[in-house]
Specification:
The chain contains twelve helices and 14 strands. The protein has helices at 11-21, 54-60, 77-87, 124-143, 172-179, 199-209, 230-241, 252-259, 266-274, 283-288, 298-311, 320-340, and strands at residues 2-6, 27-32, 45-48, 68-71, 94-97, 111-112, 147-152, 154-156, 184-187, 193-198, 219-222, 227-229, 247-250, 279-280. It has a seven-stranded parallel beta sheet with strand order 3-2-1-4-5-7-11, sandwiched between helices. The protein has a three-stranded mixed beta sheet with strand order 8-10-12. A two-stranded parallel sheet has the order 6-14. The longest helix has 21 residues, at 320-340.
Length: 342
């Protein structure tokens, strides 16, 4: 069987590529700009192209058909319209990577299923994903375009530490603050629930849907089964670092308002997603992929990630602007406490 992944070297997709590279049933192709060729398994075939250059891509794929095509870098309707033109009648299954942030939050029930309403007034990213789903499902209903929709939640790998609040340069400065004994900001009161999934676990669910006729025309959320509070997440990270966690809880609304001046989109990332408890019902996925389970719980996954991060500090950039933002927020909150208490 032959699969084509557009992108294929990101956090989610690399776990899938590595898993399929060990499966003799699959012939795997990546179509991307070739910036991370050295990290791709040797058995994977690479097509160097910019997916946005539709004419060039069409020429390079001429005469090729695929059992599965999946685009990991499609973020708006224009991208899936292009994919439809490129792959209609040329693949038996097109898997679209949507997002669990597309679910309306807070939902009517805290347990989220694939039937939970899709809506996100806070985050354009999520609304674009919803629009992509609607376009593709319309093509399925009217023309039989073989789409499967996958909605990941918070997926991480051995190079990334999942957090709720961080700057535009990523998680590294929060780790530095922990190491330096500084307080770290956690949204809300730290008690909301969240699901984290290691990318190799995600790959089990995803590859189980590939080539599965029962997945056509359907949507599936793929997440781990482990549910943690945000305080537990940060405490697990601190424990792995061997340091004391000094949590500082700040409301998501406040962070959203003050973060704008620093160029931080906490409105989308927090109010539109991480500020609300989520518990996912994965029974629909497990009916098709019964082997899907959490093999790497967070306390193991975060140690794997920290081992890599601490051994490769040159790959990560410190973020003094975010450090200053945290200090200013905490100072302002402490000052307000004193003023109110007078």
């Amino acid at each position: 069987m032959r699969a084509l992944f557009i992108g294929g070297t990101g956090t989610i997709s690399m776990g899938i590529v590595k898993r399929l590279a060990q499966d003799p049933q699959w012939e795997v192709y990546l179509l991307n700009r070739g910036n991370r060729k050295s990290e791709v398994p040797a058995s994977v075939k690479q097509i160097t192209a910019d997916i946005n250059d539709e004419e060039d891509v069409s020429r390079k794929l001429e005469g090729m058909t695929f059992d599965v095509v999946s685009d990991f870098i499609a973020f708006d309707v224009a991208a899936v319209e292009r994919d439809y033109r490129l792959f209609n009648k040329k693949t038996d299954q097109y898997i679209f990577i949507s997002s669990a942030s597309a679910y309306n939050k807070p939902a009517a029930s805290y347990v989220i299923t694939e039937g939970t309403t899709l809506a996100n007034p806070y985050w354009e990213y999520s609304r674009n994903k919803i629009a992509c789903e609607e376009f593709l499902l319309k093509k399925y209903r009217e023309e039989g375009f073989p789409v499967t929709i996958v909605r990941p939640s918070h997926t991480y790998d051995e190079r990334h530490i999942p957090l709720g609040v961080h700057g535009n340069k990523g998680f590294y400065q929060v780790i530095r603050r922990m190491q330096e004994g500084k307080p770290v900001i956690i949204q809300g009161d730290g008690s909301s629930l969240w699901a984290l999934t290691f990318n190799s676990d995600f790959a089990i669910g995803f590859t189980g849907l590939m080539g599965n006729r029962h997945a056509i025309g359907e949507a599936f959320q793929i997440t781990g089964d482990e549910i943690l509070t945000w305080d537990q997440i940060y405490k697990t990270i601190a424990d792995a670092l061997g340091v004391e966690l000094k949590p500082y809880h700040v409301s998501s609304e406040f962070l959203s308002d003050v973060g704008e001046g620093f160029g931080y989109d906490f409105r989308g990332g927090l109010l539109g997603d991480k500020a609300v408890s989520v518990v996912f019902d994965n029974s629909k996925l497990k009916r098709l992929v019964p082997q899907m389970t959490t093999n790497i719980p967070f306390h193991k996954g975060v140690r794997m990630a920290l081992d890599y991060v601490l051994a490769h500090p040159d790959e990560y950039e410190e973020d003094p602007e975010f450090d200053l933002f945290c200090d200013k927020v905490i100072e302002a909150m402490e000052r307000a406490k004193k003023e109110v208490g007078k």
